[in-house]
Amino acid sequence: MPPRRSHKKSRAGCRRCKVRKIKCDEVHPRCGNCTKHGVVCDFESNEVADDLASVSTPAAPSPLPPTPAASYARANPQPPRRSPPRPPSVTPRLVFNQPPTPKVSSVTAQVSRLMELRLMHQYTNVTSKTLLTSSPVTEDIWQRAVPQMAFEGRTYLADAILSVAALHLRSQAPEDKSLIRATHAYTASTLAEYCASLEKGITSDNAESLFLTASLIAFQSVASRIFAKDDAEPDDPNARYALPLPWFHSFQGVKTVVATSWQWIRNSNIVKSVIDSQPSLQLDLNPLGPNSFFGHLLEGLDEEIAEEAPDMVPSTTQCYSHAICVLNWAHKSPHPAAALAFPATVARRFIELVEMKRPRALATIACFFALLKRLDGVWWLHDVARREVMGLVGLFESGSKWWRHLEWPVRIALWDGSNIPPEIWGTDWETSVPPDTSQGFVDHIELVAELMGQSTHDLLNVATPFTGEPPLTAESPD
């Protein structure tokens, strides 16, 4: 057998020849094999070969014939070890090797940011116009001045804005889980920051923003009742119907902030405009007079009072009488929003009686919620009359003597349509003489402050538009 021909290995051949495992003649600038097949040789340019190797091949075949460069890239995948090193900031491998937590956090932050932008847009363009303002000035305050104040570092005010806007959007899409999470998160954040600020004390710097936040919390508490059943715990025995105490506690909170900070907010045009945007409170202080529509709710009061502790008799009597006076006024007012003065003006004792589920107190607030039937078109008051009245009626035992006092609120709550005839309502508010508006809420507060020597402690216990106790005269003992 003839001896084997000697073979000299090519150690400096081009990449294509090495991949194909054929001998390269190492001819520069283009080896013989690459010249024969009409492809680019990496001897010509290492940078060109690297760039071609990094280009991804299309998933679908191109209708055009492949170019020599494309053929080379497909047939000769380049080992990454031969690629020139890249800076770490642009190396894809480093991106994918990062821990997943920063990536998830950045996505979460982006979603939250988009949600906040969505909610702020909703508030300034839509929600701010649904807060039952009575003048362009007040509407402009809620739409422009309030967000501007929030942007100045009042995080509790900003969260309150976003919370109310989230509730508004949720009322249109009740099943949207992102909106459900947003309402819960911003509500909790608002209350936490707001309470922390109150604990630090009300000052001239934060009095305005705290008042506006308290007002938005009141809206928030009311609107949340729309979803009370959806948000209740499945095993909660009281999930069927819970007393509407958030209505009263939140509005009483506004009253407290006003009384405590009046020395600073009395000169605020923003606060004055918001307070005076509500119908002027002009009460007939005779709850049993001939024009009293709800005077029947005081029948048998003597028997109830006889069972009260002696020191509670005056406050119980007065709170019931005052509540009936407010109902009579709101019932005859041509302004549907007049009824909203009720939860802000009733006395603390009256709220205690509601918490105790006293039949008289429950029947009284049933009449209040029936008055809100005229505001059924407002999103945060939609269906509130039917829902709350029928819930309260369900707390009375069958055959109760209070059924006859509940006939009117039930009839109104279940009325089909927005136009309630005067004979059903009990008065024709469309032809009623508008109340005297020469004296607004701010004037009432100023008068009481002057009588009481501007004592904010006393303001909490006298009959202003934000309280329910009868006013003390200058000679009255403390």
From TrEMBL:
Annotated stretches, region: Disordered: 55-103
Alphabetized Gene3D superfamilies for the sequence: Zn(2)-C6 fungal-type DNA-binding domain
SMART domains: GAL4
Any one Gene Ontology molecular-function term assigned to this protein's record: zinc ion binding
Origin: domain of life: Eukaryota
Biased composition (Pro residues): 77-90
PROSITE patterns xrefs: ZN2_CY6_FUNGAL_1, ZN2_CY6_FUNGAL_2
InterPro entries in alphabetical order: Zn2-C6_fun-type_DNA-bd_sf, Zn2-C6_fungal_TF, Zn2Cys6_DnaBD
Keyword annotations of the record: Nucleus
Domain (Zn(2)-C6 fungal-type) ranges: 13-43
Record field: transmembrane: none
PANTHER family: STEROL REGULATORY ELEMENT-BINDING PROTEIN ECM22, ZN(2)-C6 FUNGAL-TYPE DOMAIN-CONTAINING PROTEIN
Descriptive protein name: Zn(2)-C6 fungal-type domain-containing protein
